[in-house]
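Task 17 of the worksheet. Students: predict the tertiary structure of the chain below and write it out as structure tokens. Keep your answer in the requested format; marks are given for formatting as well as content.
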Amino acid sequence: MKILIVKLSSLGDVIHAMPAVQDLRAAFPEAQIDWVVERGFAPLVRRCAGVHRVIESDLRQWRKRPFSAQTRAQWQAFKADLRREPYDVVLDLQGLSKSALVAWLAQLAPGGRRFAMANRTRGSSYEAPTRWVADVAVDVPVDSHAVERSRLLCARALGYPPLAEVRYGLAGQPGPFQAELESGLPIVPPTRRPCVALVHGTSRADKQWPLTHWLALGARLNAQGYTVALPHGSDAEQRDAEALATQLEHAIVWPRLDLDAMIDALGTCVGVIGVDSGLSHLAVALDLLHVQIYNFDTAWRTGPLGAAHQISVFAQPCPSVDAVWRAWAAATGVSEFAGEPTSDAA
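Model answer:
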């Protein structure tokens, strides 16, 4: 059986679809599973256990210049790659018009069918064309976690029970990093101190955590024996990372990393504390110790699922340092920390 997954973006959404692939592998060990994804997230999907072929799209760029000669040529090449082989099953896990278009373009084998969600789930985007294109529209619970939504769609479409345990099938590959070699900047601590990454950056200002909180948290981690790693994905985030590093005793500002290198770099860490962002979801997929910080009550649909060493924290306007610190203690299984400073303000 040949199965095509359509899940184009974004980073967190792609990560949330990976457990569905592990369920499919368990139910159909001989199946060939291919995946259509935006080019920027292809390195992640290539690391997902069980994915045979990654078909790269560039819809975000093509929409900016739809009538250019380059776009037309790349679009034709994409369609040829997509239709290179027929599929018995096409699973639209995105639920948007763009994913419906890709699913419609995919070539079906004789008797093949396209499956998609029949309904919107709370807090997630959904567009009707996904239902129109599907041969079979599958009902999913309205209050579904993003991971469970994809798992249930696949399981109900093909008639198998999902695995009892959520598995992402992703592993980092710690080692020398090209970005480190080129920049001369370290990724891993120069000493034997374990490293905790602080994912402080997010594209949405309302998801951010105050820099004063990050500084207080970093100081506590330093006192506990950790070096703090500070990733960044924009100039503004880099400035914040550098500002934090200058005030912490043990801190490393990572160079700007592509997705491949970021997966490897996070794989060198013992844990990650971060806001609701793609990198935090990546920490979950890598099975690291993790605390995920929420300013909105949305962890039920995007936060860590079930594992005792991965915890979400929610409060408004934002969680306090004490609350995040208690969650870190619970995730690590340590009830008291040496050198813990006194309580901070909320």
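Marker's comment: Confidence is low (pLDDT under 50) at residues 341-346. The domain at 2-158 is CATH 3.40.50.2000 (Rossmann fold).
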